[in-house]
């Protein structure tokens, strides 16, 4: 007998890895994919009935899971009261914040009385504002902010930390729009203890860039471990009632029951590149870790398998696929299509909308039919929250349900 428990989350590029992070690193439940856990229970000479009774209620206040992809009239409240940041709601004007790369700064107020920071007179992506923050190696950080632009269309914005040596690391990225506020959220662990500049990039170089309710929360390892245990209790543990009966279904008392954990059905895995095929030690390391799944970082992508129009080459992904199949490792399909413009071949950019739609459907049928029944989950359209190559070319529903359903019908016929 078995007890199956599940948590639904949203798929993303490296879902195999993020599933691990969700339950053992406390990653946001808004990322990852369907995960299942299977606990094998056995009892010699007796029937065993397993009845799930529901979970432990856990106060998740230690980690704020709140996140939003909606564009709102007003930003939501600051998380963790701003954490390590000084003046996170700009109630003290510019206190704690300085111009970055020469932008002009001022604090304004909405009709509802909410203060926010504005960077204007901009001509470069990095002309925004910053605050110096000291970050410790071995600690964990979660970041959030609400962003907006004054004009134009949607644009990519990022939160960045820069070291004194000008090494830059993006810690959160998303889209900003005129007329409403959107949320950036991310997390990271510094590799060194160092003083950094926390600042922003806004890829609309001429629009005013607005930010409000910025937060940078620090967790030490003990706090993070407590958070992990809370997440494990909430997601992976349940009370169960065991009823032992004999062959005539009569309850039996005083029976010693041994319960042994066998194997989880939720996947814990690691992304691999094509160099995996060249190094036996790399392969041995992967197998020794006990991973149950893998995802190819690039080798199943369209630009890899069809760099020249009409000439498909699956030699490398086929070899990688066969290795994992021979060793009983599940594979996640990444990715059929990619909404990031520069990651699509030049010949796709030159197509008409009708040609692109037909070619994209052919691509979907080609790669999915090739690995039919052997891929446990697919990324059909990658990064379509903040990029929109197919939407711009085909229409707003390009990666939506109409397009996916039409593509899936073709796939099922192959």
Description of the molecule:
The protein is α+β, with helices and mostly antiparallel strands and 414 residues long. It is built from 9 helices and 20 strands. The chain has helices spanning 15-24, 221-236, 280-288, 302-305, 315-326, 346-349, 353-370, 389-394, 401-413; strands at residues 2-7, 35-40, 47-55, 98-100, 104-109, 115-120, 128-135, 140-149, 155-162, 168-176, 182-188, 194-202, 209-219, 238-245, 269-272, 293-296, 330-333, 337-338, 375-378, 381-382. The chain has a 5-stranded antiparallel beta sheet with strand order 4-7-12-9-10, with no helix packed on it. Helix 7 (353-370) crosses helix 9 (401-413). It is globular and about 75 Å long.
Quickly list its features.
about 425 residues, alpha+beta, 9 helices, disordered N terminus
Question: What order do the helices and strands come in, and which of them pair?
Answer:
Blueprint: E1 2-7, H1 15-24, E2 35-40, E3 47-55, E4 98-100, E5 104-109, E6 115-120, E7 128-135, E8 140-149, E9 155-162, E10 168-176, E11 182-188, E12 194-202, E13 209-219, H2 221-236, E14 238-245, E15 269-272, H3 280-288, E16 293-296, H4 302-305, H5 315-326, E17 330-333, E18 337-338, H6 346-349, H7 353-370, E19 375-378, E20 381-382, H8 389-394, H9 401-413
Helix pairs in contact: 7-9
């Amino acid at each position: 007998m078995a007890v199956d428990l599940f948590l639904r989350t949203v798929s993303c590029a490296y879902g195999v890895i993020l599933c691990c992070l969700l339950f053992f690193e406390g990653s946001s439940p808004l990322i990852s994919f369907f995960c299942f856990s299977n606990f094998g229970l056995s009892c010699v000479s007796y029937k065993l009935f397993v009845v799930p009774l529901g979970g432990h209620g856990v106060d998740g206040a230690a980690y704020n899971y709140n996140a939003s992809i909606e564009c709102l009239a007003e930003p939501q409240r600051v998380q963790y009261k701003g954490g390590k940041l000084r003046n996170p709601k700009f109630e003290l004007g510019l206190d704690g914040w300085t111009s970055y790369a020469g932008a002009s700064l001022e604090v304004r107020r909405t009709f509802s009385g909410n203060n926010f920071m504005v960077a204007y007179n901009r001509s470069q992506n990095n002309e925004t504002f910053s605050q110096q923050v000291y970050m410790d190696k071995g600690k964990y950080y979660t970041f959030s902010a609400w962003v907006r632009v004054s004009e134009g269309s949607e644009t990519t914005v990022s939160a960045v930390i820069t070291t004194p040596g000008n090494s830059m690391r993006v810690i959160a990225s998303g889209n900003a729009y005129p007329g409403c506020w959107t949320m950036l959220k991310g997390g990271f662990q510094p590799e060194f203890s160092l003083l950094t500049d926390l600042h922003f990039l806004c890829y609309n170089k001429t629009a005013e860039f607005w930010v409000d309710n910025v937060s940078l929360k620090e967790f030490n390892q003990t706090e993070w471990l407590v958070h992990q245990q809370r997440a494990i209790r909430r997601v992976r543990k349940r009370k169960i009632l065991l009823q032992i009966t004999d062959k005539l279904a009569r309850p039996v008392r005083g029976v010693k029951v041994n319960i042994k954990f066998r194997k989880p059905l939720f996947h814990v895995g690691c992304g691999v590149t094509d160099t995996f095929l060249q190094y036996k030690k790399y392969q041995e390391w992967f197998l020794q870790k006990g991973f149950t799944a893998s995802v190819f970082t690039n080798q199943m992508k369209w630009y890899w398998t069809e760099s020249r129009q009409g000439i498909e080459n699956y030699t490398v992904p086929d070899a990688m696929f066969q290795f994992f199949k021979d060793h009983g490792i599940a594979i996640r399909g990444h990715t059929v299509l990619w909404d990031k413009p520069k990651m699509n071949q030049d010949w796709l950019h030159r197509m008409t909308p009708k040609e692109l739609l037909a070619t994209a459907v052919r691509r979907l049928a080609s790669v999915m039919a090739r690995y039919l029944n052997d891929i446990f989950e697919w990324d059909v359209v990658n990064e379509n929250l903040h990029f929109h190559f197919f939407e711009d070319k085909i229409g707003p529903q390009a990666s939506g349900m109409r397009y996916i359903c039409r593509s899936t019908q073709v796939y099922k016929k192959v």
